[in-house]
Amino acid sequence: MYAQLVKTDSDRVRGLDEMSAEERAFQERIDRGEKIEPKEWMPEGYRKTLIRQIGQHAHSEIVGQLPEGNWITRAPTLERKAILLAKVQDEAGHGLYLYCAAETLGVSRDELIELLHAGKMKYSSIFNYPTLTWADIGAVGWLVDGAAIMNQVPLQRTSFGPYSRAMIRICKEESFHQRQGYDIMMKMAKGSPAQKAMAQDALNRFWYPALMMFGPSDKDSVHSAQSMAWKIKINTNDELRQKFVDQTVPQAHYLGLTVPDPDLKWNEEKGGYDFSEPDWSEFFDVIAGNGPCNTERLNARVKAWEDGRWFREALVAHADKRAAARIAAE
Ligand code: BYC
């Protein structure tokens, strides 16, 4: 089922002269900047690439609730609890808009969730790292939501209408999330020496995993070329990673924290920072299922799905009863 739904063969971009008339007309629409809507004709590869990316994105929002949800009861003040609760709730909402966008491509939410639970569909590598201290919640908001926004702002212009529209609302909420994370970091970094040390430790542990969120380096990105030709992706992984570093390093300086990269250096000529690449073997290991929290995250999702089964079945039974009563009354 995985192969039928999401496996794409998009490592080679075909020229217009290699395309059928239908595919050529489709590519020309993309090139003119038109949006593609669900009922319109689209190449199978385009549909599958979108199901893979939107589905993975939706799963990331849902699994992404876990590392932060873990801190709701332990947030230091009532205000922080309320803010964190609202943020985690927003992420559930983002997951739902994205599952809805994927459903317009002919796949059901249940099918996507089954693939996630079977380990056949991915979610963002970042959520396989633990949140050990309160400062980690600051680092997640600042760096993880910051990286998410960097990736998602261009996706507001993605070629598939429902995905681009979902992104507009999601980006508005993500910018609030990023600010709440930075606000936690400010408090910690300007607090007692112990609090500042916690903030530094969180930055040390989250810096490289955040850089990995943008995906492998361009030379190892199998999908980028075709996804960019279809304007599903607007930028390459390395372009966005560079922008993220350029934006985030001055924010770390403002906090008085040190980015854990001895080779980080402003490069006047390119107008950006030179920085060390993440450890890509760690990245591939994490996305293969061997990160510090992969098993815990997936087990938590499967348990929530199983625990909610009776409720979903009750809703369907209730809807069936009401429908039967309506028919009987006609
Ligand atoms: N984690 O050819 P490539 C959020 C996989 S934020 C796991 O470059 P593509 C949130 C990739 O799927 C996070 N897997 O792929 C924030 C492919 O494997 P498959 C969610 C990754 O798709 C705060 C292989 O590596 N955001 O939700 O062109 C709180 C080769 O990569 C990752 C999105 O999903 C990764 N980091 O580019 C709560 C944004 N990177 O599928 C929630 C939308 C790569 O062939 N997605 N892989 O088996 C995208 O923009 C793109 O899919 C990516 C990857 C840039 C992530």
Model description:
With 330 residues, the protein is mostly helical. It has a two-stranded antiparallel sheet. Helix 7 packs antiparallel against helix 11. The chain is globular and about 70 Å long. The site of benzoyl coenzyme A has 28 residues, from helix 3, helix 7 and helix 10.
Break the fold down into its secondary structure elements and pairings:
Elements: H1 2-6, H2 21-31, H3 44-63, H4 65-69, H5 78-103, H6 109-117, H7 134-155, H8 161-189, H9 193-212, H10 224-229, H11 237-255, E1 265-267, E2 272-274, H12 280-290, H13 294-307, H14 309-329
Antiparallel strand pairs: 1-2
The structure holds benzoyl coenzyme A.
Number of strands: 2
| Beta-strand residue percentage | under 5%
Q: Which series of helices and strands comes N to C? A: HHHHHHHHHHHEEHHH
| Distance between the amino and carboxyl termini | 41 Å
Uncertain runs with pLDDT below 50, 5 residues or more? none
Radius of gyration: 21 Å
**Largest sheet composition:** 2 strands, antiparallel
SS summary, helix count: 14
Mean pLDDT: 95
* Biggest sheet, spatial arrangement of strands: 1-2
Structural class: mainly alpha
Helix proportion: 55-70%
The geometry reads as: globular
Q: Which ions, cofactors or small ligands are bound in this entry? A: benzoyl coenzyme A
